[in-house]
Amino acid sequence: MEHHGAPGDPPARPPRTVVFDLGEVLVPSTGLIRTLAAELGVLERALDEAYWRHRHRHDLGDAPQRYWSAVFADLGLAPDPDRMDAAERSDVAFWSTLPTESLTLLAGLARATVRLAVLSNAPCGLAAAVRSSAWRTPFARMLFSADVGVAKPAADIYRRADVEFGTLPDQVVFFDDRADNVRAAVAHGWDAHVWRGGTAAVRVLRERGVLG
């Protein structure tokens, strides 16, 4: 029989949801620009500037062809569809592959039955790859900027995330690498933290009573 507590007891607090960013949190960027620059035959510094200059619109849902056309133009490369498709595949594969450290962290949280979610600024192709990946199993929900045409740190994406995750703001613990994203999440009411690595995250979750 379900136990509802003694009369007058406050309702049981729903379990908190732990939300992770993807890039630079679950997936560090180390090696990305070097790998893509070698594939394209360009200087790493030039690619780094072009890659990030146009990324925001891509994260909001711009098609890969439009994004890579802009990157290639900045680099002085001909808009070869095959080379752009190859760059897109490499980019998606990189960001959708978790390192061992992240897999270990997620496995431990899953064993502790922690409810997990992802909130990431990410384009459509990457969102699809993550959702079809083997490692996404422990996650109850995922929301990407390209899904809704809104990116962090805009306030609306946190409101949309609560709807998607089925959470109230005070039920979320959030980790992101960018201080501006964390500040916006805190303003929304989330318990948000700048990412300092898996060990620090576990310490926060123990302090919050999410982990024993």
Evaluate the radius of gyration. Answer: 19 Å
Unreliable parts = 1-6
First-residue to last-residue Cα separation: 26 Å
In spatial order, strands of the major sheet run 3-2-1-4-5
Q: Give the class from helix and strand content and strand pairing.
A: alpha/beta
Strand content: 5-15%
Give the tally of β-strands.
Answer: 5
Shape: elongated
User: Which H/E pattern describes the elements?
Assistant: EHHHHHHEHEHHEHEH
Descriptors for this entry?
11 helices; alpha/beta; 212 residues; disordered N terminus
Account of the protein in words:
- The protein is an alpha/beta fold and 212 residues long.
- It is 50% helix and 12% strand.
- Helix 7 links the parallel strand 2 (115-120) and strand 3.
